[in-house]
Specification:
Radius of gyration: 17 Å
Helix content: 10-25%
Number of strands: 8
Number of domains: 2
Largest sheet: 5 strands, antiparallel, barrel
Number of helices: 3
Strand order of the largest sheet: 1-3-2-7-8
Strand content: 35-45%
Order of helices and strands: HEEEEEEHEEH
Length: 179
């Protein structure tokens, strides 16, 4: 009986390390599955300098939100350096995921819209969760095909420290929050 408990915890530990590794990068090819073309030329560093515009509704093929493969994808963002807004996500929305919603948004059922940029951080009514302030976001989509990338350096630290059982992102609970 004791060995089953240890084995069960070991499996959760390994799954949490895999989840932490998958949190580091969201990368994929966006595909518009309708006749009308979509457009995105958007970049944002640390949620403080959004620049560009994106309006994409389609699919993404890649690694995104701890899932690999085809997923529904939406990205409606705009920014002029100090001010901007974003509503984006892929796959199924999970309000318990610290990358997708704030702690006070646990009752959300759809992707929330967040104010971006330094102005949004100070004066915005819908501030981002804290995690976008430690990530880089890029999207390019012209017509029917594009590329999407989010890099989260703090999740590299979460992955490395996770091997010592430290969980700085708080996402290792019960096999990982993002399930």
């Amino acid at each position: 009986m004791m060995s089953l408990a240890v084995l069960g915890n070991g499996c959760a530990y390994v799954q949490n390390r895999a989840n932490d590794a998958m949190d580091i990068l969201d990368v994929g090819i966006t595909i518009n599955n309708k006749v009308k073309p979509d457009f995105a030329l958007f970049l944002d560093a640390f949620a403080l300098t959004p620049l560009g515009f994106s309006s994409v509704d389609g699919k993404i093929l890649g690694v995104n939100n701890r899932r690999i493969g085809w997923q529904d994808h939406t990205d409606h963002s705009w920014g002029i350096l100090l001010v901007g807004s974003e509503k984006k996500g892929s796959g199924k929305f999970n309000p318990a995921d610290p990358h997708l919603a704030r702690a006070d948004q646990r009752n959300q059922t759809t992707w929330p819209r967040f104010d971006k940029g330094l102005v949004g951080l100070v004066f915005g009514k819908s501030r981002s969760p804290w995690t976008p302030f430690v990530q880089w976001d890029r999207a390019v989509h012209l017509g029917w095909v594009g590329v999407y990338l989010i890099c989260r350096p703090v999740d590299v630290a979460d992955f490395v420290l996770g091997w010592t059982t430290l969980d700085i992102m708080g996402d290792d609970l019960a096999g990982g929050v993002k399930q």
